[in-house]
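WARN retry 2 of 3 for item q-0093 after timeout on previous attempt; input resubmitted unchanged.
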Amino acid sequence: MTPAWRGNRRSHLLGATLLGALILGASPAYAHNVVEDRTPAPESSVTDSPVTISLTTNDIFLDLSGEATGFGVVVRDSAGLYYGDGCVDLDERQMSASAELGQAGTYEIIYQFVSADGHSLSESYTFVFEPSPDHAPVRGYDTPAECGVSRDTAAEGAVSGAEPAPAESAPAATATTTAEDAGAEDSPSSVVLIVGVVSLVTIAAVVLAFWRIRQRGDATEI
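OK item q-0093 returned
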C-alpha cells in the first residue's frame, strides 16, 4: 500500500464523516416536546370558574388514534378532590381543557401528552383560586372524570341499582297471595268431591248389605 493511497483513503473517510455531520445537522432533532406556555401560569392567581387550561409545546403532538388517547388534564384541590369533565381538545401543538372549581384555595394541574417522538410525558404545577364572593363552588370527586361519562348518571345508576330487591319483593308477595287465594277458591270443590266419594261408598255399602240379607232370606225359604 503506497502512502499516496493511504492519503486518499484518509481524505475519503474525512469527507464522508463531514458529509454525515452535515446531514445530521440539517435533519430535525427528534426529542421530547418542550412546554413553552401554560395557562393559567404556575403559581398564578385565578378568579374565574370555570378555568380554561391550555398548554403549548414546541412541536406537534402525536395523536395516532385521533381520539386524544394518552392525553389528559386533571385538576385537583388540596383535599385531593378532582374537578372537570375529563375531556381534552388537541390542536397540533396545543392541548386545552376546562374545569369548574370548588372552594377557594390551591389547585394542582396534572397533564399528560404524547410527544412527536412517541414518548409520553406527565408534569404538574399549582395555581391559587381566589373567587369572588358570589362564586358557587361545585362538588369535587374522589376520582378523575372520564370524558363523555356523566357523574350524575353514574350516581343515579348506583342508587337505583341498590334498590331492586324491595321492588321485586312486591310481585313475589302478590304471587303468594294469588296462590293462597287460588287455594281458598279450590277448597270448596275439594270438600264437595270428598263428600261425594264418601256418599258413594256409603250407598254401595248399604246396597251390599241389603243384597246379603236378601240372599240369606232366599236360602232359608229353600
